[in-house]
């Protein structure tokens, strides 16, 4: 039988490019949830992706959720809710986490902390190198985040953002194309269908793309 694509359950899909890793197969933290075919690319060790998810403390309970077919470049950092400090006190210093009896009685309840919920990245998202994504951010399907950006607010589906703080530069496509892609949800199709869609997904002729998708949705 002809192979339809790389096995989503292996670590290195192409032995000629060992820096590229399907990260769902190497993460161990159950609160990091990664979709099939999403990869991280880092010559220094793509298998150490979890080192780039910081301030991720079990007692907070937040999650990092990344969809399918995402492209994540080296140096990307996901800052989780444990980085947030209370800002309504006279000092922002977290005495209560330092042990040795410091402020143990003043330890805030989880609901008193400025938590922003799970960090969620959609499907088919491209995150450029050295991007920092702050706690609780939601990135929509098909978005592109430019290199060296700091993302502190939500990113619309099929938008392109860049900068510090990241701002929307433009939408990637016209409204009709975006609506059709969101209806298609190609990343949820079976691998045989995705193989058949590749000529469409790889085309920059948007009239062709729209005409083909209209036949499917």
How would you explain this protein's 3D organization?
With 217 residues, this protein is α/β, with parallel strands linked by helices. It has 3 helices and 15 strands. It has helices at residues 175-184, 191-201, 206-214, and strands at residues 20-22, 32-34, 39-41, 53-54, 64-66, 71-72, 77-79, 119-121, 126-127, 132-133, 138-139, 144-145, 150-151, 159-163, 166-171. The strands form 3 sheets. A 7-stranded mixed beta sheet has the order 1-3-6-9-12-14-15, with no helix packed on it. Helix 1 crosses helix 3 (206-214). The protein is globular. The two termini are 29 Å apart. 28% of the residues are buried. The mean pLDDT is 91.
Q: What keywords describe this structure?
A:
alpha/beta; 15 strands; 14% helix; 217 residues; 7-stranded mixed β-sheet
**How many DSSP-defined strands?**
15
Rg: 20 Å
- State the order of secondary-structure elements, H for helix, E for strand: EEEEEEEEEEEEEEEHHH
* Poorly predicted ranges: none
Could you say which structural class the secondary elements and strand pairing correspond to?
Answer: alpha/beta
The largest β sheet comes out as: 7 strands, mixed
Principal-axis shape = globular
Count of alpha/pi helices: 3
Task: Tell me the fraction of residues in β-strands, as a range.
Answer: 15-25%
